[in-house]
Amino acid sequence: MEQQTMNLAIAINRRYVRYAYVMLSSFFAHHTLPVNVFVMHRDLQPSDMEQLGALADSDTHAQGPAAHAAFHFLRVPDSLMPPDEVLTSSAWGPEAYFRLAVVDLLPADIDRVLYLDTDMIVNKPLTDMYFCDIGDCRIAACREHFCDPPYHNYCDELFAELIPKGFCYFNSGTILYRLDAMRADCGFASYMELARRLEYRIEFPDQDLLNYRHYNEVYYLDASYNQNARYGYNYKEMHYERMKAETAIIHYASSKPWRGNFIHCDVEQIWWDYAARTPFYDEFLEEIVRETMADTQINSYITDVLSKNERMYRLIEQYDQLLNRGNPV
């Protein structure tokens, strides 16, 4: 029986090579099947490719060196770059749109591919999810934590005609593509034409376009395959141990663990656990310490909170005094 192979795709620029290395290290730590890794990019240099390719010889994987990993570096041509009207519709860089070009970029003999954002940690094996039967659906994804309307933002207008049809918003950080079902009419040009028809009102560019195009042909995966770390911590009481026990993919979508300019939480330690296995660990530590020391935002925030807290206690004290005057012992 022929051994199964997984296909994994990422989109990065030079600045994200090290973070992609961490995510891929976490992926390999849980998989022993042969894996084709397709790296979509515009500016990677030979040294960058060598760094990532070294993962095939790393000892951070479940069964030793990942000799089963083959890296394929796909430089995105000008013809698959979004027009200026699309790029200026949001603050996201061009790499955000590369996942819309998987049909155009990947080999024609590949039937499915799993796309993952590089600000993720793979915490469990994804084999069952990757090979699951998604029926006639073209893609599989996880619901966004604000998936149901009304959204009280631009989405209410953008998706107005779809909402009565049962529209539900999904996150594009984890996307399983059935390429064999998409090749006929889901090329990059079709998404750019959709952006034009929507008058470039998209704010989360690739995500909005994927949601609009595939709202009625998406298979919804369990939320554990794209758990927003900060949302899980703030609203689901998911701390370190529970996050590790219950999630397959942890998505650090807003607050990046390697940044020093915000207040951190314990679920970020999972990212650092995997970063510690990479050759960039000391660099990450030095950078976050330097940014934390140089950034005044956190200090300003804490100072403001303390000031408000002090004013609140003064008000409470004043109310207590007024109540005691009206109710003498």
CATH architecture of the largest domain: Alpha-Beta Complex
Distance between the termini: 88 Å
Instruction: Provide the succession of SSEs.
Output: EHEHEHHEEHEHEHHHEEHHEHHH
Strand content: 15-25%
- Sheet with the most strands: spatial strand order: 3-2-1-4-7-6-8
Rg? 23 Å
Q: What's the CATH superfamily of the largest domain, by name?
A: Spore Coat Polysaccharide Biosynthesis Protein SpsA, Chain A
Low-confidence stretches: none
What does this structure look like?
- The chain is built from 14 helices and 10 strands.
- It is of the alpha/beta class and 329 residues long.
- The chain folds into 2 domains: 223 residues, Spore Coat Polysaccharide Biosynthesis Protein SpsA, Chain A; 34 residues.
- The strands form 2 sheets. It has a 7-stranded mixed sheet with strand order 3-2-1-4-7-6-8, sandwiched between helices. The chain has a 3-stranded mixed sheet with strand order 5-10-9.
- Strand 2, helix 2 and strand 3 form a beta-alpha-beta unit.
- The longest helix is centred in the last third of the chain and has 30 residues.
- The mean pLDDT is 91.
